[in-house]
Structures are given as structure tokens and as C-alpha cells.
Design a protein that fits this description.
Elements lengths: L1 H21 L4 E6 L2 E3 L4 E9 L6 E8 L4 E8 L7 E3 L9 E6 L10 E10 L4 E9 L13 E5 L1 E5 L18 H11 L7 H9 L12 H14 L1
Parallel strand pairs: 1-10, 2-11
Antiparallel strand pairs: 1-3, 3-8, 4-7, 4-9, 5-8, 6-7, 9-11
Helix pairs in contact: 1-2, 1-4, 2-4
This protein binds calcium ion (CA) (2 copies).
């Protein structure tokens, strides 16, 4: 088992090495977290920037199922410099637009929570998809060049019991090396991962050490657990 685990780690390292050359430097990722909640509950959901190539302004459109969720607010994560965060006035608008517009002459390269969404659960059960879209013309750096971000949508499971297997990243009911492989592929920026795989990954707990980012540290933490349990 140890040998297999070290293969996974070196595979992840190889993927990381590849990624620096294989992907354009000017593309980041924005994702909205997933959650399991109960009917009537109020909960917060972070919107997270990863591999931020540097922006002066950003605009995001948030879309969700208003029959299942009510948006109560959106708070600035304050990682985009001295940005003015314009949260929009009408929380009932769908899409709901979040804009950041920095007057600084330097790009903001912060990663982590860019906004925290607050929702109330209206539905008794079901799943509410939460999607993000980048308004490309309003997302640019200090040179006024448009900056590309890929987006990863979230899903809110309503009424479901609390996640019993947060380490089951591929959602197959078991926690084993296959989950570590999936995590390694994500960290290595494997572009062939499907939306379904990404949804399951973030419905579980990829951020093992709860620092707000998914990195090799999380892979190491997961491998340690798998090794201990096997
Ligand atoms: Ca699994
Ligand atoms: Ca982490």
C-alpha cells in the first residue's frame, strides 16, 4: 500500500511540474463551494479564487434556484486589494452581479475567499445548483487586458443528512486511494476532469486541512488517513 501511495504523490508532483508550462499563466479559477443543509436553515457559502493571475477589476454573475434558496447577502472577502465591492442593490435579481473595481495601479493577486454568500433554505428537499459566470469585459488587469477565469459551480443538498463520508471525494461510497488519485488530478490541474467529478469532489471535503485552499497539503492529509485506515 505504501508503494502505491508514494506513486500517487509523485504523480501529483509530476502533474504540478507539467502544469506550470502547459497552461496559460493568465488563467485563474473561481469556484463556489458546495454544502449540505437542512430546510429552513441559514448558511454561508464561500466563493473562492485560485491561481489568480492578477486583476484590477472583476465581475461575477451568480445564478441559483430561487424556488429553493433565498439570497440574504454577499460580503466582500477583501482579497482584491482596496477594491470597491459593489454588491448590487437588489438581492432578488437573478443573475445577481458582484463587481470589484480597484483604483490601485497594481494587480491584485490574492487567492482565497473573494466573497461569502449568505442564503436561506426555502425548499424542503432537493438539490440547488449555484453557478457563477465571469463577465469577461468587466474582468481585467491594470493594463486593461481581459483576464480569463474558469468557473466551478456548487451544489447545495437540501434536507440530506450531514455528509457521513467527507473523504469520499469521488462519491463511490468508499474512501480509498481512488479518492487520492482524484484529488491529485485536481491539484495537478488535470483539464480532463468532468463537471460531475468536480461536483462530487467539492460536495465532499477536498480541503482537508481547512485553510480555504486545495493544495498538496490536503493530498498528504488524505493519504495519511487512507494509510492509517488500511
Ligand atoms: Ca471514494
Ligand atoms: Ca487545504
Amino acid at each position: 500500500m505504501k508503494k502505491l501511495l508514494s506513486c500517487v504523490i509523485s504523480g501529483a508532483l509530476a502533474l504540478q511540474g507539467l502544469s506550470s508550462g502547459a497552461f496559460a499563466a493568465d488563467s485563474g479559477r473561481i469556484r463556489v463551494d458546495s454544502a449540505s443543509v437542512q430546510a429552513g436553515e441559514t448558511f454561508e457559502l464561500p466563493v473562492i479564487i485560485e491561481e489568480n493571475p492578477g486583476v484590477a477589476a472583476m465581475s461575477l454573475n451568480l445564478t441559483y434556484d430561487a424556488s429553493k434558496l433565498e439570497l440574504l447577502g454577499a460580503a466582500d472577502g477583501k482579497i482584491l486589494g482596496t477594491s470597491v465591492f459593489l454588491s448590487g442593490n437588489d438581492l432578488t435579481l437573478i443573475p445577481y452581479t458582484m463587481n470589484w473595481d480597484d483604483l490601485s495601479t497594481e494587480n491584485n493577486t490574492g487567492n482565497g475567499i473573494v466573497a461569502t454568500l449568505k442564503f436561506e433554505v426555502l425548499a424542503e428537499s432537493g438539490t440547488a445548483e449555484i453557478s457563477l459566470a465571469v463577465n469577461q469585459k468587466s474582468t481585467y488587469n491594470v493594463d486593461l487586458d481581459e483576464v480569463a477565469f474558469t468557473t466551478v459551480n456548487g451544489a447545495v443538498k437540501i434536507g440530506a443528512a450531514a455528509e457521513e463520508q467527507p473523504d469520499d471525494l469521488n462519491g463511490d461510497g468508499a474512501v480509498n486511494v481512488a479518492d487520492a488519485v482524484l484529488l491529485a488530478r485536481f491539484i495537478g490541474e488535470d483539464q480532463t476532469l468532468t463537471d460531475e467529478q468536480l461536483r462530487k469532489l467539492f460536495a465532499a471535503k477536498p480541503d482537508q486541512n481547512e485553510d480555504g485552499l486545495v493544495t498538496l497539503m490536503d493530498l498528504k492529509a488524505l493519504l495519511k488517513k487512507i494509510e492509517t485506515e488500511s
